[in-house]
Amino acid sequence: MSFSLHLLILCVLQGITEFIPVSSSAHLMLLPQLFGWQDPGHSVDVILHLGTLLTVLVYFYSDIWQMTKSVLCYATSGRLNLPKDPHLTLAFSIIAATIPAIIAGYCVKRIGMDRFSGPVYLGINSIIFGILLYLADRFGKNDQKDFSIKSGFLIGMAQSVALIPGVSRSGICITAARMLGFDKIKATRYAFLLSIPTVLGATTLTVWDLYKEGVSLPIAPLAMEVVFTAIIGLCVIHAMMLFLARFNFTIFMLYRVLLGALILFCV
Fold first, then answer.
1. Long-range contacts, 6-10 (Cβ 8 Å, 24+)
2. Separation of alpha carbons 231 and 222, rounded Å
3. What is d(CA 177, CA 86) in angstroms, rounded to the nearest whole number?
4. Nearest CA to 58 among 243, 246, 226?
5. Which of 93, 134, 193, 236 measures 20 to 30 Å from 159, CA to CA?
6. Three-state DSSP class for 85?
7. How far, in Å, CA of 179 to CA of 140, rounded?
């Protein structure tokens, strides 16, 4: 696979939209339809997902390392009760949040989601879940400090809805976290950390499907494209965290409503 202009644009689009709550899947579906491009195929899905995963691993390496150490210490301690370790609690919370996504992903793979991927659904979902994000941010309290297994599971249930194109995985996770009382910075960081097992699982399934189809992935071009996507993502995720330190999610709600209205108007 050559590093074509189309692929370059998709990598940039993924790096930008994955880390702002506007639904990367919707944009990646709309752009090829808008310009009449051919279906890029599962190989491009692998590139985009791996780029996203690399971004989060690099940006949150300190959190990931602390959680890994805490889990290993707990696993080798022989204790059953959980110690008061925020990194360990966060790790178990993310594990709990991943369970609903696994179940929902299995069900979607069995029944398919093509019926909900049309432009009408993308437009409606963009508007509805954009407004929900605004309301959760506007009226959500900031009275929760640490994520628990319960809060993680509830956010994971919300994340399962993001399997429907146009919802936005990060957007629905942030919405749920804000509704549970976590501030916008904690909610956003949690949504990004939660993407690690989710994206890793989706990438693994895609690679397995390609393997069963006998499709080989060229390592050198793949690595270059993954790194390019990750670099774009790192710039965007850093800018996003700086933005949220001063502003709220209103601009993203307005963008999603306008995008959804434009889609519905053009259908």
1. 6/32, 6/37, 6/40, 7/40, 7/44, 7/47, 7/225, 8/228, 10/40, 10/44, 10/48
2. 14
3. 17
4. 226
5. 236
6. coil
7. 5
